[in-house]
Amino acid sequence: AQKITQTQPGMFVQEKEAVTLDCTYDTSDPSYGLFWYKQPSSGEMIFLIYQGSYDQQNATEGRYSLNFQKARKSANLVISASQLGDSAMYFCAMRFSNSGYALNFGKGTSLLVTP
Amino acid sequence: EAGVAQSPRYKIIEKRQSVAFWCNPISGHATLYWYQQILGQGPKLLIQFQNNGVVDDSQLPKDRFSAERLKGVDSTLKIQPAKLEDSAVYLCASSPLPTGGSSYEQYFGPGTRLTVT
Predict the structure, then answer these.
(1) pLDDT score, position B52
(2) What does the pLDDT read at residue B103?
(3) By CB neighbour count within 10 A (0-12 exposed, 13-18 middle, 19+ buried), where does B20 fall?
(4) Longest alpha-carbon distance in chain B
């Protein structure tokens, strides 16, 4: 069975600090993709970052980086220099090569950035 | 480039009534997805189309939900009759056909928030 686990229901971080959001997964499929999406209160899912299972280097996109530890089956999102606008729900998701490319989402982590 | 469009944004209906949602994907995107997001949970795939064919509808409650994508562009999702547990946000997403080495991430619309009373 393929499963995504986000164990942090809510996180607080002070503005300008870095924060790590945890994500672990369970799969026996050797080929998969890992995604992080942001969902502000407006409801739209915004793509942040992608990591392929065969990628050798950790993905980075601006202030977002993905700490990919394949042996531990974890794909944590690191947000550096947090901004007030980063306050939102964050979802980790996996795509499996045999799933028609649909995404399997975790339950999400609510991040609140404080001044 | 225009994003994924959905309408309506909000809908309130009574149980046992019917409702339909509409989605217009990003131009040129062959793949279209409908997800259901219940409050406090991550989105769950209901159905996936590639062009106008169904790729995966294994989690679609077919006794009450139906979806179509005529001409491989717009799509409609219908619920008939609605139940209280159908209250959720219905998200439409689209992506291009996968090519080697691409992340082909999905682009989401703003969603339709359905409340069944």
Answers:
(1) 84
(2) 67
(3) middle
(4) 46
* pLDDT tens-digit map of B13-36: 999 999 999 999 999 899 999 999
**Do the Cβ atoms of B15 and B115 come closer than 8 Å?**
no
Query: Is the bond preceding residue B8 a cis peptide, omega within 30 degrees?
Result: yes
Q: Does the beta-carbon distance from B45 to A106 stay under 8 Å?
A: no
Measure in Å the smallest separation between the Cα of B82 and chain A Cα atoms: 22
Alpha carbon of B108 to those of A9, A69, A115, B5: distances in Å?
23, 28, 30, 9
User: Which residue is it, tokens 């980063």?
Assistant: A86
Percent of chain B at pLDDT > 70 equals 94
Taking any CB pair shorter than 8 Å as contact, residues of chain A touching chain B are: 4, 33, 35, 37, 42-47, 50, 52, 91, 93, 99-108
